[in-house]
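Hey L., structure's done. Input below.
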Amino acid sequence: TPSNSSAASDVYKRQILTKADYYPLFTGKSIINGSLKTSSDVDVIAYKASSTKTVTIGKTSPGGTFKVDVYNSSGSLQSSNPTSFSAKSGSTYYLRISGTKAGNYKVTIQ
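Output:
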């Protein structure tokens, strides 16, 4: 039986993910080019680290303004607006990317 805190975490995680335009799961080295077309767009990228990797996030077009939140697999916020972070082997992360202005971004996992 799930505990109350586990259930609350699952509900919160579903809220994070259901507002996303897409929800891919990446597991290896990747370069992900994304785009927020309006200020209300939200993208969520899931990453399961098969080994420790560095994840970098940046914008690729002028004018775009992004907010990036990194969550762990239980839905707890790990970091807000990082330009990079270390993804630990065996862990799953959710990058929630939202914008106040439309534009393009790039997530690199290496």
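The chain has one helix and nine strands. Residues 1-5 have pLDDT under 50 and may be disordered.

-- N.
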